Amino acid sequence: MTLKPAAVVHSFRPRGARAALFASLAALGLASVFLACLFGPAPVPAGTAWRVLAALLHGGADVTDPAFTTIVRDIRLPRAALSWLVGAALGLSGCVYQGILRNPLADPFTLGVSTGAAFGASLAIFLGLASLPWLTALGLDPVPLAALAGAMAALAIVIALSRAGGGLRRETLVLAGIVTATFLSALISLLKSLGEESVFAPYFLAGLAIVARYSRELDILALGETQARMLGVKAARVRLYLLIGASLLAAASVAVAGVIGFVGLIVPHLARLTLGAEHRPLLAASALLGGILLVWSDVLARTVLPHGAELPAGVITALLGGPFFCLLLRARALGRTERP
User: Fold this and answer.
1) Ramachandran sector of residue 167 (left: φ over 0; alpha: ψ -120 to 50; beta: rest)
2) What is this structure's pTM?
3) Residue 104 DSSP one-character state
């Protein structure tokens, strides 16, 4: 008899409550994308933005000011939608890393994947690959491709170091990831000092498909290596597939939005506080919450400074995530001291 993961790890909420929560998060995500179109150096009235979007959806004539149409349809709507997708990818990726490593501090930075993607993109820019006409003629953008290659190379290095250190175990994975991330960060700094200067969907969908395929096995991996083997799960192979899927999600995000910290770290914690530890609903909630968080972080990034100046979205997520994580650590410490 095979024990299903759902029988091992239970959620805190009944299915009806979970469905209502997911519907609310999805509606909030759509509302956030719409509201994000209103804010910026040139504010757009809500009614005007709604007419622009209605004309876009229904193919009717747009009766608004052409300037507002350009701002909403061509600039802010694509930016808000991409912010949601990147946030969802980072939330999913962080949730998978925390599940694989059984480490609440794990996120795309832990295994050096984000740093590897950033190094790949930096190297492509430094070598002038971004302007190669033959790649452009083929419809390929070299920078995201280089980011993906860098992320996969970093993951391969981490796995090789981990196996050399005694097998594909979570402890050796974390240590190898820290070493790899530190080394690649130094190389990025070197490239910047030497020369200063969308392919999101395919990698996002590929990573999402892998994570969805092995999402149930995450619950079994949480039981430990020995128990996973007893339940018929090839832990090392499943862990490798999930690492590749999460790394694809992180690499796609870095390729189009740069390195954005804390989303993959704090979003799974927020989802876990509400839903418990079962990974299928946890992954869905992490994606929805991550998208909402990054949409509003991007809104703040482009509105908090005067005269149209913008901050990187990663600055906002760090300012929000740092204090939250300190509170989380404090709450965990208090919880341990209050246990009998």
Assistant:
1) left
2) 0.81
3) T
